[in-house]
Each structure stands twice: as structure tokens, then as C-alpha cells.
Predict the 3D structure of the following.
Amino acid sequence: MPATILVGAQWGDEGKGRVADWLAAESDVVARFAGGDNAGHTVVVGGAVVKLHLVPSGILHSHVTCVLGNGMVINPINLVKEIDRLAAMGVNISPSRLHISTKAHLITPAHVALDGAAEKARGDQAIGTTLRGIGPAYMDKTARHGIRAGQMANLEEFGDALQRAIEQANKILIAQGAEPLDATQATGESMDAAARLQPYLRDTTLYLNERLKAGARVLCEGAQGTLLDVDHGDYPFVTSSSPTAGGALTGLGFGPRQVDQVVGVAKCFSTRVGSGPMPTELEGELANWLRGTGENFWDEFGTTTGRPRRCGWLDAVVLRYAAQVNGFSELVLTKLDVLSGLNELKIAIAYEIDGKRHDFPPSTVSELERAQPVYETLPGWRDNISRARRSDELPQATLDYVHRISQLCETPIRTISVGPERDQLVEL
Ligand code: IMP
């Protein structure tokens, strides 16, 4: 049985965690393939909110085995903390249920310090990274002097590599006027984490190919989103990995013929954290309304950073592009319940840039910054739809809104979410 790839269609935070949790019920293996603990996937089970940064959402299903793939960058200290937090909640997270690719790269304290220093040096051109060391870790990987997870198997070798990485980083930090790291402390904490993680190390390329050959169903859980992809996103306001469908293959190590579904996840309005263009961004009352206030976890504040998300109308230009880049077989639309109460809803169906109409985003940020959305207005709905479980329990205006989005991005929408709980899904 083949694999399903699940990816974000916007700028991340589309609700991939809850969709991954739903699809995991029908999967044998759930594997992350890109990024690291910059991700924040939220799953709500029976009112309990579980926030995952590195461990795939599948861990909450006892029959699922989870994989941290070779395309990831992993902070061992934070992974140990996450494992301990999940274990304290009663989740079985033994090495038989979680495999870390020996080829994944590690995020060291040096990378975290360098991420902070680089952002500071960028001044008002800062990317607004999550400060988790993601960019510097991928830089070391491509520069071919990174540290791979497999090196944790030999603590002496790992300690030496870490020491060298910290000495190297300290030279850069001092040159940038930043505080150097205390090498002993930074090395000690990472060594302790490495010792804890040794039983989880595995050649996951072999493992995944063997499981696929034996008929297992593999869910590839994407992080971030299409517009944050280092190739296809709003460069340079992107992350440093390939969170799109192509990245799943290089980030896990099996071929495209294993994949039978590519599921995109989109929120029914737009949000973005960090800097970079966002043509449909709103300000004021409406933005605050979409962002949410009060105690609802579903509010638009970053799961990893706690920063308020920028909010705006749904951008179908972005979705059309994401459908093209990833080849979606279907799109899952999340958070429809949040729109209840608005009299009318706008969708950007194209951009106007310097007097010319664009159906797809331009490839430069400067053009994108000048993009004026061409809006279409649809009627809203006032009913609370969070209790709907069947499509005939939804207002016609909700169905029309979903249908129009599907038309605009030429992708079927068969499932929508109307709340964060596992059962708050409607099959159309
Ligand atoms: P980095 O991945 O920490 O280097 O951050 C690069 C950009 O991607 C910044 O704009 C971040 O806010 C954004 N970003 C990274 N991970 C996520 C995510 O999981 N959700 C939303 N935005 C993210």
C-alpha cells in the first residue's frame, strides 16, 4: 500500500496537526520529512491540547510507528524534552514507536545562537525566524560540515564534533559582537541528550522502504507551508527546507511511485507569522476578529513562538499556486467555524501588479509587495457551525464558500473542519 503526503498550502499554521491526527488513524507509519522544532502541530483529544514540535502527530495513535526523517534538522535537547513531556502525559514513546534517521542533521546550541545573531544583524530586514537554529543547521548541512544524528551513536566522536562546531560558531559570534557560548555547558547538555536518544537511531530509509514493500500505509507529515519553501516560497522570507510534496521524497528516501495521494491543508482565511509579503493582510477590527481573543487555544498566536499571527482574507492565488507546486489530489479546509458571524467574506481571486492581472504569484518579493488583490465577495453566515457533522447540517453559504474555493484552485475539497476536536470534521 502506498504513501500519502500531507502538506500546508499557505504560510504554515494551516491546521496540519489535526488533519495528520485524523489521517494517522488509517496509517501504520507517520513520518516527518522537513524542518525541525520550528513547527508547532496542535492536536486536541477529549479537550486536552497536545502541542508537538518534532514528534509526528501519529504518536497519539497507539498502533502507529513514527519516524523523524533524514530531511529534518533535530535539536536533541528539545527532542528529549518533548519525549519526556509526552511520556508524562501517558503516551507510549518507546524506541519501538519512534525512529530517528541516522542521516537527519542535528541542531546544536551553536546553531541557535547563530540564528539569533543573524536575525539581529539583519535589522529591519529580519526574516522573523522562530530562532530555533533552523537556517544555520541547514547551512552546515549543505556546506558539508553538519553533524548527523547517527554521530550520536559514538559519544566521543559526537563530543569532538560538537566542540569544533561551538569553537567555530564562537568566532562568528564574537565577530558579530554577540556573546560567545560556554562550550562546556553547551556540550554537556547535548551529550546527555545524545545518550538518551541512542536507542531511537535507525536507518529510516531502509525501514520505510521495507514497511512500504510489506504493504504498510505511510503518512508523510509536512511542516511549515508551500509559501515558506526555500525554492517555491517568498524568498528570502522563507524557511530553509523543502516543506512541499517533493521534499517528502528526498526527506524520507523513497520514490514517487509509492505515493498515491497528496493532501493539501488550507485554512479558510490567511495567516502568516514572521516577515514577508501577504497581499490580503487585514488590520484593525477584522484582523483582530479573525485572530481571536479570549482563552480559546484556536486563537491565532504561534504555537512555537507565541507571536500574534498576521491575518487576512483567503488568498486563492496562493492556493492555486500551491495546488500546482504540490499536485494536490485534494484539499482539506480548516477553521470554517471561525468565519461564523461575518456578513460577507472576500476571496482574492487574482492580483493586479503595475496594472497587469496575475493568476499566480510573481516570483519576486518586490512584485509581490506591490500586488493588489482582486477580490470577489461572497455572503457570510451567522449560524454556529461547530456542531455540524454532516454537510446537510451546514448553511448553504458555507457550502458555497467551500465550493468556490475548490473551483478557484481546481482541486476537490471533500473534508472541512469546524473546530479543533477530533470529531469536528465534516465530509462533504
Ligand atoms: P525559520 O524556519 O525559524 O528559519 O523561520 C523562517 C520563516 O518561517 C519565519 O517567517 C517563520 O515565522 C516561518 N515559520 C517557520 N516555521 C513555521 C511554522 O511551523 N509555522 C508558521 N511559520 C513558520
Q: What stands out?
A: The first strand starts at residue 3 and ends at 8. The chain is about 30% helix and 20% strand.
